Amino acid sequence: MVGRLKWVLKKLWIDYPNYKIRHNSDLFPLFINKPMMYPKGEKFQYNNTGYVLLAMIIEKITGMYFDRYLKENVFDVCDMKSTGYYELDRLPAKCANNYIYCADTKDYRTNIFSVDAKGTGAGGAFITVRDIIGFWTNLLEGKLISNWRIAMQGVRIYEIPACKMVSSGIGMFGEGTFNKFDEWLSSQKRGLFPKDFLYWAGEGFVWLYMYEDGMDVPKEFEIIDFQGGLYAVATDIDQKTDKELMNTEINKFLSENGFERDTSRSELGNIITSPLVKKIIGYDQMNYYFPIKAK
């Protein structure tokens, strides 16, 4: 593998020396108008050119070189004073060189003739551990992306309409009534979204399923009126949820968006993972529904 890598890198720079690579556009001659290695869709192979194009989109929109844009909008904002896209022949003091293993000498050597002279959208920034901490701290505190945007990745607002539900009554998993409800529920046609909900009723669980006109409901199950309303919804791995962390995130989201908890209604939950998906990923994902109302 090492020999193959050395051969590829050596061939890559024959017609276009790596010391010419100082900007994203400098990489274009290496792949523009070149024949495809294989027909599209035939196989996957990692490729840096997509990230180079993304960086050039940023340059086109902002009118700034990619590294300058990152410096002003990320590095400076996060006080990352030791981070930058430095040129290999102009490295600042105390900046470490990169090394790769050389099989023929069984030792390490610098890789300055194996990579771009300056990093691009495909990578190449120099950074310290302290600056990495600064980046993540500012990201999670909303200095780079608004807190609303971060929170919305994990919390959604659902409005469940008032409707009729088939109720299992209070019970526990493994017991007769719950087993029968599970069998009946499993016989229903699966839709795009789950129609069942579970909540804790103090002495056991109650399992609900959205009722539809003409539905054949076993006589041991009751059809009830469901109040509906607004819910803050978060997703996690079933039975592995950090409830304290989830509640902290929910409360933070509610306080920032004009909501508060509605303690008059029960919290709900449902499994959203299909049998096929569970077979692939090996676990169930669960939605947690927290009843809320506008302040």
Overview of the structural elements:
The N and C termini lie far apart (62 Å). Helices cover 29% and strands 22% of the residues. It has eight helices and eleven strands. The strands form three sheets. Strands 3, 8, 9, 10 and 11 form a five-stranded antiparallel beta sheet that branches. It has helices at 2-12, 49-62, 66-75, 129-140, 147-154, 176-186, 243-256, 275-281, and strands spanning 99-102, 107-110, 155-160, 163-171, 196-200, 205-210, 222-226, 229-237, 259-261, 268-271, 285-294. Mean pLDDT is 86; it is low at 1-7. By secondary structure, the chain is an alpha+beta fold. It has two domains: 2-145, 3-Layer(aba) Sandwich (Beta-lactamase), CATH 3.40.710; 154-294, Multidrug-efflux Transporter 1 Regulator Bmrr, Chain A. Helix 5 (147-154) packs across helix 7 (243-256).
